[in-house]
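Worked example 3 (structure in, sequence out).
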């Protein structure tokens, strides 16, 4: 999946074939790995691996992320990296199984790293048009990140995130995709 933001920023999102193991309440689970490679002016500036698991009710949990920040082709840091079971014991929900308008949840709650993110469902039947096409029955969320502000996101069936929007000049929109997204 390719997404494009403002200026000459691009994110290439890939569902990796491997999984990462986590333990939740004594049960070992395998998390899907989504890799986002971020480029600005053609230069790699970040590689982030996000980890997700889904329960039997359809709730999708955010298990953390490994982040490598780059400058001139070399890793210079890991800002924003965290993992469930290492940095927090609180499960973050990225998306409830049956979200309802007005419902609230937290996708990230890692106080010792000052990472806190509150989410709420704005719509469960949104239609959105991006360069990759028009998508229907999407869940629009409002995300509030401590010290960063608000962001709207649209999650669409069989595709995933198609738009992340903070303002008319600061957004990321889906340009293309080649496969359906599903959790293992």
């Amino acid at each position: 999946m390719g997404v494009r933001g403002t200026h000459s920023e691009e994110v290439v999102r890939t569902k990796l074939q491997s999984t990462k193991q986590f333990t939740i309440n004594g049960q070992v689970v395998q998390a899907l790995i989504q890799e986002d490679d971020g480029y600005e002016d053609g230069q790699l500036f970040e590689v982030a691996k996000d980890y997700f698991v889904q329960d039997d009710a359809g709730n999708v949990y955010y298990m953390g992320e490994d982040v490598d920040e780059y400058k001139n082709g070399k890793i210079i840091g890991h800002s924003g990296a965290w993992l469930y079971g290492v940095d927090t014991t609180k499960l973050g929900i990225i998306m409830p199984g049956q979200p309802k308008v007005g419902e609230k949840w937290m996708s990230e709650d890692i106080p010792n790293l000052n990472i806190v993110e509150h989410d709420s469902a704005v719509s469960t039947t949104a239609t959105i048009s991006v360069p990759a096409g028009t998508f229907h029955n999407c869940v629009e969320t409002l995300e509030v990140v401590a010290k960063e502000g608000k962001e709207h996101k649209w999650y669409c069936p069989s595709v995933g995130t198609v738009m992340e929007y903070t303002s008319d000049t600061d957004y990321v929109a889906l340009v293309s995709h080649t496969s359906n997204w599903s959790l293992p």
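Notes: The two ends are 18 Å apart (CA to CA). The CA atoms of residues 1 and 107 lie 22 Å apart.
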